[in-house]
Design a protein that fits this description.
The chain is an alpha/beta fold. The chain contains 13 helices and 9 strands. The strands form 3 sheets. The chain has a 5-stranded parallel sheet. A two-stranded antiparallel ribbon has the order 1-2. Helix 4 links the parallel strand 5 and strand 6 (146-151). It is elongated, with a radius of gyration of 24 Å. It starts with a strand and ends in a 9-residue tail after the last helix. Mean pLDDT is 83; it is low at 1-22 and 257-263.
Length: 317
């Protein structure tokens, strides 16, 4: 199936019967992601390890899954993921290495599996040294699973600072893929918007002006931030056929609000901020009902704030 978005297309690849129903979708309209996709295809049939580096929310898991799925001989159940985020170091050790003689650990699941390990930047020196010793001791073994690793940009900094083993990093990064921020692959944004809108069941279309608002945004939260904004669009404008830049302005402002107001001002109360934001919302929507829906409050709350003089409107319905 092909999902059209303007002049661009997203390919939805269906799996064969041995694999999951639908593969993870990989969008590569931008030159940088096309280059990464070409590298992925080259790596798919190799057994060498891969290190994926990138900020949270840039789609690194999708890249790992794409490496796995590009090899048509892989069975879906042989993709195993270990996320180190939120785990104690002793638990990571146990999950990877198992008990005595490394029995029943994930590193012993066999060469027919792919093991995706996330969160290398969290590893202690003990874990780093143990992994390095294990990999060196088993470098000629055919029993290791295919290893794909992920670390955030903190991992590179830790290597430079000396808190992550340079020797281990060299072993892990036999093949290195660096995934760009969403702001560095803006050609992919229209395709992501079409994909998320389709998943949300949203039938409306975005004008070129609205798309430009999204393309020009900084995207500090990367792909999850865009997914969240598309979800808000599908809820707030479910009945609209055409979404323009004005429709997006309140959503973008609301998502940027934390950044805009990051400096605390003791002379401004939380109630003042809430009241001023209601005013902004009312002046945008020109309707108490629409404003209440967008802000997640009741129409009665807005009426009470207007009646008490806390909210002063320049326009109202």
């Amino acid at each position: 199936m092909i999902l059209h978005t303007g002049q661009k297309q997203i390919f939805f690849e269906r799996n064969n019967t041995e694999k999951k129903e639908i593969k993870e979708i990989f969008i590569s309209e931008s030159v940088v992601m096309k280059n990464i996709y070409n590298k992925i295809k080259d790596l798919a049939y190799e057994n060498s390890s891969v290190l994926i580096l990138g900020a949270r929310g840039t789609g690194c898991k999708t890249v790992a899954q794409r490496i796995f799925y590009e090899n048509k001989y892989n069975n879906a159940n042989s993709f195993v993921e270990l996320s180190c985020y939120g785990l104690a170091h002793t638990l990571i050790d146990k999950k990877l290495f198992g008990g005595e003689n490394y029995s029943k650990g994930l590193l012993s699941i066999g060469s027919e599996h792919t093991l995706f390990i996330k969160g290398l930047e969290l590893w202690t020196a003990f874990l780093q040294n143990k992994m390095l010793s294990y990999l060196i001791a088993n470098r000629h073994s055919n029993s290791l699973p295919r290893l794909i690793y992920y670390g955030t940009d903190r991992l590179s900094k830790k290597v430079q600072e000396g808190s992550f083993s340079q020797e281990l990093f060299n072993v892990l990064s036999e093949n290195l893929l660096i995934i760009p921020l969403l702001s560095e692959r803006k050609e992919d944004i229209p395709s992501f918007v079409s994909l998320f809108n389709e998943k949300n069941g949203f039938k409306g279309q975005l004008t070129q002006g609205a798309l430009q608002v999204l393309i020009s945004h900084l995207w500090h939260g990367n792909i999850p931030e865009l997914r969240n904004i598309c979800l808000q669009i599908s809820i707030l404008y479910a009945e609209k056929d055409l979404i323009n830049e004005e429709d997006l302005s309140l959503i973008i402002r609301k998502n940027d609000f934390e950044t805009i107001c990051i400096k605390y001002n003791p002379s401004v109360s939380l109630e003042d901020i809430i009241n001023r934001y209601i005013e902004l919302s009312m002046n945008h929507f020109k309707s108490k009902k629409e404003s209440a829906k967008a802000l997640g409050i009741s129409v009665k709350t807005i009426y009470n704030k207007i009646k008490s003089g806390d909210v002063i409107l320049t326009n109202s319905d």
